[in-house]
Design a protein that fits this description.
25-stranded mixed sheet; F-box domain-containing protein; globular; single chain; 27 strands; alpha/beta; LRR_dom_sf; Monooxygenase; disordered N terminus
């Protein structure tokens, strides 16, 4: 007897809504139930694709041969050398792309050269493409900008800093992108006339991001710098909501750009000014005089005075004082997010200004500095962080540019001063405890820390280190913790006695645990980086049995690319290309290599090195 297959006449949007609540693994299971379910759940699994490395890209191209490419809406290709033939085949294989991103090796472009067509190219198939990120040869960007009408609304490209011909071709074609709302330019030198040309060509522009950019001088004398709006006569851009200068140069000497930003973009809701910094940059022979400091303080304060709608502000390695906060208070600006840090003890003064101001932010990002390694300075800073706002719910602490690796910051002290934190990220920091050996005793004793429990929900450790005692503390004190992300971190412990990372939180129910590049302790910190842990032992007490021993396999080397030029080059990592679940491996037969041991009550999603295990 043959059972007739059930037919589903519901709109696909209903199944898209259902898929939103499923993990990647659950979507894959749904596709294997029957033919009808395969048709219904395939689009949700292929709609957003992120490819890393040549091997994954080859597997992706092979999968497209089965005809699933028309489901792909967003495609990100990272660390891949793509030939011209492969690039030209993508529009036929994925004709419905809305977002395309190349972030990796250079392309073998043979279709377009300096914006001129030499062959018949198929990019016209991408009639729905709105977002384009192309960080090497501008093959697709040149084509779309040379069509009679460019459909792009978001464009992110990388130019060559000294290649004037490439920049000239780009500006000559930009007037076709009349619908552009967001523009990101990497490695470019810009003058005032070129910035004005961007706004004249793209009247709907709402966001500009300049990465590794050099801002050329506008004026020479102090009067010229302060009066650029009267001298150069430019109109305000009312549509602009976000301006970002990341790792830029020119704001020190050419501080007149600060006056330009405040006058040109009065309706900004987000501003980010991050000036070039390196721990190897020599100190200036001649320090700025008091009068020169006043000029720069006035320039940065002009942004607070003229941009009254600011909700998010990031000022990193920028000369500033309390004048900026005073101006924001005077015009009634109420920030939601703020980022501070100038790599010196002056950051303490900025925190004090924030405490005295009327700004009551929800999110704070702090760039640390060298003297935070001194216990007294660190403790003073943590106390001030707790005083910055009575509604602080998100905090990011970064020591990335301090020149110090694994600076110790006590997690329990920070959470005791900021108990309302729901999101916390430690970057290039050693997460410690004030008294790691007395965690259990404090918990069952009459300690004041029991009165106010941290509300932490999401914890991120990145490019740092920790001890296993951290997870004991989290298990006893952070009952609301539901997301844990660990990326490029090293366990601290005795080399032979404690090799395993033990995330033992038996009463916790997690929505997600993500682990990438976890390393065991080593005696060779200053000689050789320890290899990544390849074995993960997962035990969920809710299911009353071990979920298996997962082994990462077939590693390949890769270099993660930075989004900015910096003297501290990224390390070479090894990433796995597949994993195996040893479900029937007994304790006696388990390998002696270091483990990441995970024990919790329940876990919705487990991501290990970009593999969705659960």
């Amino acid at each position: 007897m043959v059972t007739k297959q059930l037919a589903y006449n519901y709109p696909h949007e209903i199944f898209d809504q259902i898929s939103w609540y499923l993990t990647n693994r659950q979507k894959g299971v749904c596709r294997t139930v029957c033919r009808s379910w395969r048709v219904l759940f395939t689009p949700s699994q292929y709609r957003h694709i992120q490819v890393k490395g040549r091997r994954q890209f080859y597997q992706f191209i092979q999968a497209l041969a089965s005809g699933v490419g028309h489901y792909v809406k967003r495609l990100s290709v990272d660390d891949v050398y793509m030939t011209g033939t492969e690039l030209e085949s993508l529009p036929y294989l994925c004709p419905n792309l809305v977002s395309l991103s190349f972030n990796g090796k250079s392309l073998d472009t043979r279709s377009v050269t300096n914006g001129q067509e030499s062959l018949v190219i198929p990019f016209s198939q991408w009639k729905y493409l709105r977002r384009l990120t192309e960080l090497q040869d501008l093959t697709v960007a040149y084509y779309l900008l040379n069509t009679p009408y460019s459909p792009l609304t978001h464009l992110n490209i990388r130019l060559e800093l000294n290649n004037n011909a490439m920049k000239t071709d780009f500006f000559a074609s930009l007037h076709k992108a009349t619908e552009l709302e967001s523009l990101s330019l990497d490695s470019i030198s810009l003058s005032l006339s070129e910035i004005e040309a961007i706004h004249n060509s793209c009247p709907r522009l709402q966001k500009i991001r300049l990465i590794n950019a050099n801002l050329e001088p506008i004026g020479n004398s102090i009067n010229e710098k302060k009066s650029i709006s009267a001298i150069h006569r430019f109109d305000s851009s009312r549509c602009m909501k976000s301006f970002e200068l990341q790792n830029g140069t020119g704001l020190y000497e050419n501080y007149e750009w600060l006056y330009y930003i405040g006058t040109k973009y009065p309706n900004l809701t987000h501003v980010q000014l991050w000036c070039t910094y390196s721990v190897n940059t020599p100190s200036p022979d001649i320090l700025p005089t008091d009068d020169e400091l006043i000029e720069r303080y006035e320039a940065i304060a002009s942004i607070g005075m003229k941009c009254c709608d600011l909700k998010s502000a990031s000022f990193m390695n920028v000369l500033m004082n309390h004048w900026l906060f005073d101006e924001m208070d005077n015009v009634g600006t109420k920030l939601e997010n703020i980022t501070l840090g100038d790599m010196t003890d002056n950051t303490i003064g900025l925190l004090q200004c924030l405490i005295r101001s009327k700004q009551n932010v929800k999110s704070l990002t702090l760039w640390g500095w060298t003297s935070l390694c001194i216990h007294e300075t660190m403790e003073e800073t943590v106390v001030m962080i707790g005083q910055c706002s009575n509604r602080l719910s998100s905090f990011t602490f970064s020591m990335q540019f301090s020149g110090v690796k694994n600076a110790p910051i006590p997690l329990n002290l920070l959470l005791s001063k900021c108990p309302k934190l729901k999101y916390l990220k430690f970057d290039n920091i050693q997460a410690t405890l004030m008294c790691p050996k007395s965690i259990i005793e404090d918990y069952f004793g009459d300690s004041d820390s029991r009165l106010i429990k941290p509300q932490l929900q999401h914890l991120v450790f990145e490019n740092g280190s920790f001890r296993n005692e951290i997870f004991k503390y989290l298990s006893l004190n952070c009952a609301n913790l539901e997301k844990l992300d660990i990326s490029s971190c090293t366990l601290i412990g005795e080399y032979y006695a404690e090799m395993d990372i033990k995330i033992h939180m038996p009463y916790h129910t997690f929505k997600r645990i993500s682990i990438k590049h976890a390393r065991p302790p080593s005696h060779y910190y200053h000689v050789k980086q320890a290899s990544d842990i390849r074995f993960f032992d997962v035990l969920l007490s809710k299911e009353q049995h071990s979920n298996g021993l997962y082994e990462l396999q077939d590693f390949e080397t890769f270099n993660p690319s930075l989004t900015f030029d910096y003297e501290q080059k990224p390390m070479e990592y090894s990433r796995p290309t597949k994993y195996t679940n040893h479900k029937n491996t007994s304790g006696a037969n388990q390998p002696s290599s270091p483990f990441v041991s995970i024990q919790c009550h329940a876990l919705t999603e487990l991501n290990i090195s970009d593999f969705w295990i659960i």
